[in-house]
């Protein structure tokens, strides 16, 4: 084999290895570098608070680290009475000469030592208090930024994402997982820093007290780490599944509460409770398995530590007996070794302990890396906003299907000229709402083209496009807010008089006036306190107020009685004047107001000559 061939082989093997490692890392329990950097970008604005908190923490930790030295002072200097000179000498030997004045004071008597310890404890307590306050501020700020930014990002996902995933599920992913990530950066980072600092300081002091024994203790650290590493991957897998199952519980809960009318009408409360408890049991089992794994990893480290302390006890006691170590050194050494135990357990069980948090962080990252509606990598500034909308809307040979199998629209072509009103009728399930969804840019056609004033919708800024369309959806959604604010939703700056005018045109003003607080009446969740017909008319009033060049009405009168419908048709005719309007409906009075009527049947759009001719007559009379 030639050298070049070997080189190529080697490069290939390395790249395969690297890719495999990369895949393994993303699937199991580590945050990739660039993901960490991504989250770190959220830390930057609050870095000052974080740094302050960390500094205070390190100072308190350093103070805590010197406390066990008091054991040595008590034994060697006070109890065995070797005097302050030897203390100063040993402090010098430990490179802690700067502590000599304090040690002098402390070494004088037991009272002095206790007083000095009290002083140190008060200092540690005060610093700790301030540190916690700063840390909480830091944590809250971080959480606030992450939450807001994730909400902003998720709202820009395509409509299909929201259709596919349930409200409760999305809510769990937007809020619960972020809380966990915040813990990763706020609490866990601090824990790692303190424990690492404590470990380093303690090991350094130990090393000066007795290098040989310190090497034995330090040698155990990798063993702890190794024991823990064995558990990491499994905990991660469990944690990820558990998070998914928890989101599923929330999804079920939200769905049942939203559909409570149905549940009650079918007396299916028991069945729903059973389903809920089944899902909850699943989460419970996963959490239990996760805890068992974590506890096992903790126990393995504790067990190893216990062995380690026996070794220290044995070697240390032997050295004291042979006079190669002072009694005080042994006491201090043992105290440090115990402190290190706690720290080492905390530090080396951490990789397994933080797996649930890393699972959450990866889930948050997944959401952040999903493309918003207008496409990722797509230059936002390249998306067009037309300087003026005339309103010529055209479909040419548009075909569409939701699942790329069963076509919903086939080769649909039509043009609506500015100021024209067309109506589309057809059986339920025929694709009317789908056609409207395409106009609003909720979905893109698989083939064919939709244009507004000659520009393809694909090239337009979708938010701009929608701001130029007033749409009344087939299903009315109202926020749990006042009637007035619901009407004002498309035009938040509208005055009360404008709201009333729109309500009058939608023939809902009288009904609103009869409500307990008129326009200030809260409508309940999804408008629960109103009838369907009232909700529909509020939605129409909303469209009146939006005043956009394109008007789209999806079965806007389906919930109205004939009398109200006929009156609304008059208003709609008024509203549609000068606007490009598409209406879908089965209802004759509404179809009769249109300039042209189409029939949508099995995805094909054909002119409906009968209705169009009838409509001519109607309009001539009107
Ligand atoms: N989000 C969706 N995902 C998959 N299929 C859908 C979706 N929305 C509607 N459909 C299907 O598309 C077809 C047309 O639905 P739709 O446009 O709502 O009809 P219409 O408004 O005429 O009653 C139906 O067969 C329906 O099952
Ligand atoms: Mg429909």
TrEMBL record:
GO terms for molecular function: ABC-type transporter activity; ATP binding; ATP hydrolysis activity; ATPase-coupled lipid transmembrane transporter activity. InterPro entries: AAA+_ATPase (IPR003593), ABC1_TM_dom (IPR011527), ABC1_TM_sf (IPR036640), ABC_transporter-like_ATP-bd (IPR003439), P-loop_NTPase (IPR027417), Type_1_exporter (IPR039421). Residues 393-622 form the ABC transporter domain. The chain crosses the membrane at residues 42-67, 105-130, 183-207, 213-231, 296-315, 330-354. It is a multi-pass membrane protein. Residues 51-342 form the ABC transmembrane type-1 domain. It is found in: Cell membrane. PANTHER family: ATP-BINDING CASSETTE SUB-FAMILY B (PTHR24221), ATP-BINDING CASSETTE SUB-FAMILY B MEMBER 6 (PTHR24221:SF654). This is ABC transporter permease/ATP binding protein.
């Amino acid at each position: 084999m030639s050298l070049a061939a070997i080189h190529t082989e080697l490069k290939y093997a390395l790249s395969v290895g690297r890719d495999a490692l990369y895949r393994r890392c993303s699937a199991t329990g580590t945050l990739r570098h660039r993901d960490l950097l991504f989250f770190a970008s959220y830390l930057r604005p609050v870095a000052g608070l974080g740094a302050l908190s960390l500094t205070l923490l390190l100072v308190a930790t350093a103070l805590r680290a010197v406390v066990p030295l008091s054991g040595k002072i008590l034994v060697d200097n006070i109890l065995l009475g070797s005097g302050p000179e030897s203390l100063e000498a040993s402090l010098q030997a430990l490179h802690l000469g700067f502590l000599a004045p304090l040690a002098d004071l402390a070494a004088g008597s037991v009272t002095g030592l206790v007083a000095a310890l009290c002083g140190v404890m008060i200092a540690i307590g005060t610093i700790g208090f301030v540190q916690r306050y700063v840390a909480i501020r830091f944590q809250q700020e971080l959480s606030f930024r992450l939450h807001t930014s994730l909400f902003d990002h998720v709202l820009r996902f395509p409509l299909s994402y929201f259709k596919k995933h349930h409200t409760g599920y999305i809510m769990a992913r937007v809020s619960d997982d972020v809380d966990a990530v915040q813990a990763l950066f706020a609490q866990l980072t601090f824990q790692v820093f303190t424990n690492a600092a404590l470990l380093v300081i303690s090991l350094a002091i130990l090393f000066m007290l007795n290098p040989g024994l310190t090497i034995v203790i330090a040698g155990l650290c990798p063993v702890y780490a190794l024991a823990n590493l064995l558990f990491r991957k499994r905990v991660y897998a469990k944690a990820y599944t558990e998070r998914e199952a928890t989101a599923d519980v929330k999804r079920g809960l939200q769905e049942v509460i939203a559909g409570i009318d149905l549940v009650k009408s079918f007396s299916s409360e028991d069945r729903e409770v059973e389903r809920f408890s089944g899902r909850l049991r699943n989460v419970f089992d996963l959490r239990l398995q996760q805890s068992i794994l974590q506890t096992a990893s903790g126990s393995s480290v504790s067990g190893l530590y216990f062995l380690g302390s026996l070794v220290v006890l044995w070697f240390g006691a032997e050295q004291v007996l042979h006079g190669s170590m002072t009694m005080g050194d042994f006491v201090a050494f043992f105290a440090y070794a115990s402190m290190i135990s706690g720290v080492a357990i905390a530090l080396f069980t951490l990789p397994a302990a933080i797996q649930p948090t890393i699972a959450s962080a990866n889930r948050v990252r997944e959401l952040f890396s999903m493309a918003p509606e207008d496409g990722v990598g797509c230059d936002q500034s390249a998306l067009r906003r037309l300087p003026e909308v005339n309103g010529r809307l055209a479909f040419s040979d548009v075909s569409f299907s939701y699942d790329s199998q069963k076509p919903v629209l086939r080769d649909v072509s039509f043009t609506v000229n500015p100021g024209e009103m067309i109506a589309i009728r057809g059986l339920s399930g025929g694709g009317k709402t789908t056609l409207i969804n395409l106009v609003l840019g909720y979905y893109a056609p698989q083939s064919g083209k939709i244009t507004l004033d000659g520009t393809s919708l694909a090239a337009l800024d979708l938010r701009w496009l929608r701001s130029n369309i007033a749409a009344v959806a087939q299903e009315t959604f109202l926020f749990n807010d006042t009637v007035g604010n619901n009407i004002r939703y498309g035009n938040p700056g509208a005055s009360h008089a404008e709201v009333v005018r729109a309500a009058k045109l939608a023939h809902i003003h009288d009904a609103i006036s009869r409500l307990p607080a008129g326009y200030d009446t809260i409508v309940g969740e999804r408008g629960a306190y109103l009838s369907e017909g009232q909700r529909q008319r509020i939605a129409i009033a909303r469209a009146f107020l939006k005043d956009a060049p394109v008007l789209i009405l999806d079965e806007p009168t389906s919930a109205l009685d004939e009398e109200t419908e006929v009156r609304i048709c008059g208003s709609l005719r008024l509203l549609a004047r000068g606007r490009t309007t598409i209406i879908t409906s089965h209802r004759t009075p509404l179809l009769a107001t249109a300039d042209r009527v189409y029939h949508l049947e099995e995805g094909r759009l054909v002119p409906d000559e009968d209705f169009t001719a009838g409509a001519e007559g109607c309009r001539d009379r009107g």
